[in-house]
Amino acid sequence: MEEIATLCNDVSLAVADSIKDLVGTKKGGEVVGMGADGTPSKFIDIVAEDAALEILASSGIDMKIVTEEKGHLTFGDAPEFTVVLDPLDGTYNATRDVPFYSVSIAIGDADLADIRYAEVYNLANGTDFTAAKNKGAFYNNKKIQVSQAAKLDEFTVASYGYKDRSDVFNRLGRHVRRLRSFGSAALELSFVASGRLDAFIDLRSRLRIMDVAAGILIVNEAGGIVTDGHGQEPSGELNVTNRVDIVASNGILHPVLEKTAAAL
């Protein structure tokens, strides 16, 4: 696992170096094509992904890769694992120099439920969240855990639904203390894991596997719970086109929160 952890961190550092002069620039925000995930690719996305793939290719390790711009790649003849990569989660924030964007990288096999190592690297300040299956979650190598908030009207929740699924946003607004939308699902999940937020909810069926694969493991290893809005563990093939719904919380009021959000 140490080799994998080092590889993931090398990827994050390479991405950080590659985009540092593009953050907040017009050039960085130029649309230059369409990604394999079906969304427009900006120049800063391409630069970030190329930097990440260069590190992965140079490692000499056989692997499969699922990444939003190029889709599915295979390095070598006998892949040891699958890398689920979002080299720039929070592209809009990066192009506008809003300091909340990250690298999300997860290591697994074939399914979202198989993830065994994760790193979310905050590109705006150089900090990171990591987790290994059954080994706990960490922020800058210090163990973290979810919040202990036990009343729904004390919860601070990151959520989306101001366009699609505005009903979710409205219901939550009537029951929780604060709603926030920061623009990087990977970091928002990591903030749940570290107790900065009490929950993260997105039921628009728009989240990609690459957005959440790392964050899900980090929340779980920090003592939280992550479900799909219907009480089930998020799962699905590690595929660039798959979309998922997520309810992540500190676990204390998870069934109540899920019921409130999804109107079950």
Briefly say what this structure is:
The protein has 264 residues and is of the alpha+beta class.
Walk me through the structure.
This protein has 264 residues and is α+β, with helices and mostly antiparallel strands. The chain folds into two domains: 2-143, Fructose-1,6-Bisphosphatase, subunit A, domain 1 (Fructose-1,6-Bisphosphatase, Chain A, domain 1, 2-Layer Sandwich); 152-262, D-Maltodextrin-Binding Protein, domain 2 (3-Layer(aba) Sandwich). It contains seven helices and 15 strands. It has helices at residues 2-19, 43-58, 91-95, 166-175, 185-193, 209-221, 254-262, and strands spanning 31-34, 40-42, 63-67, 71-75, 82-89, 102-108, 117-122, 127-132, 136-139, 142-143, 156-160, 178-180, 199-208, 225-227, 243-249. The strands form three sheets. An eight-stranded mixed sheet has the order 4-3-5-6-7-8-9-10, with helices on both faces. Helix 4 crosses helix 7 (254-262) and helix 5 runs parallel beside helix 6 (209-221). The mean pLDDT is 92.
